[in-house]
Amino acid sequence: MNKAVNQHAAMSPDQLAGACAEAMWRDDDASRGLGMEILEVKAGYSRLAMTIKPDMVNGQRIAHGGFIFTLADSAFAFACNSHNQRVVAAQGSITFLKPGKLGDRLIAVAREISLAGRSGIYDVSVSVDDAPIAEFRGHSRSIGGTWLPVGENQSNSN
């Protein structure tokens, strides 16, 4: 039997989430290119950071909302792909509470709200210095496939 498969089967849900995040991160040119950092990933949860750079501010001299949305969407992606299922966004929406500013270090925290069958709901709060500046809700859909080989004792039921 393949050693890697047995190793994945023995992982805790949080260890599996971390391994899935590593596999995703290798090919996530968008998140890496924007300077995002993965701070923490657990089963159904992620925390990412990104600093607002000069090319991320708009004509109002505040953070362009698209970059805030992208950070929230990336945190959503790492949370919903944490169960070793390949998952994409089916829908996402954001409410901006306060502007982000040049130099702000944004922290996005994604939490799984519901996971049933192939569909999930995730809430993401984006903050600066613990003050929320945006709230995002994403709906996910699994598309088949896994990030890591599935071992005998590891569930692949989503």
Characterization of the model:
With 158 residues, the chain is α+β, with helices and mostly antiparallel strands. It has helices spanning 3-9, 13-26, 29-33, 65-80, and strands at residues 37-42, 45-51, 87-96, 105-116, 119-128, 131-142. It is globular, with a radius of gyration of 16 Å. The model is unreliable at 1-6 (pLDDT under 50).
Which labels suit this protein?
disordered N terminus, 158 residues, 6-stranded antiparallel sheet, alpha+beta, single chain, 36% strand
User: What's the Cα radius of gyration?
Assistant: 16 Å
Major pleated sheet = 6 strands, antiparallel
Rounded to the nearest angstrom, the distance between the terminal CA atoms is: 24 Å
Strand order of the largest sheet: 1-2-4-5-6-3
- Low-confidence parts: 1-6
Order of helices and strands: HHHEEHEEEE
Q: Decide which structural class fits the backbone.
A: alpha+beta
Q: Mean pLDDT, rounded to whole units?
A: 92
Output the number of helix runs. Answer: 4
> Which range best describes the helical content: under 10%, 10-25%, 25-40%, 40-55%, 55-70% or over 70%?
25-40%
User: How many strand units?
Assistant: 6
Q: Report the portion of residues in β strands.
A: 35-45%
Shape: globular
Question: What's the SSE blueprint?
Answer:
Blueprint: H1 3-9, H2 13-26, H3 29-33, E1 37-42, E2 45-51, H4 65-80, E3 87-96, E4 105-116, E5 119-128, E6 131-142
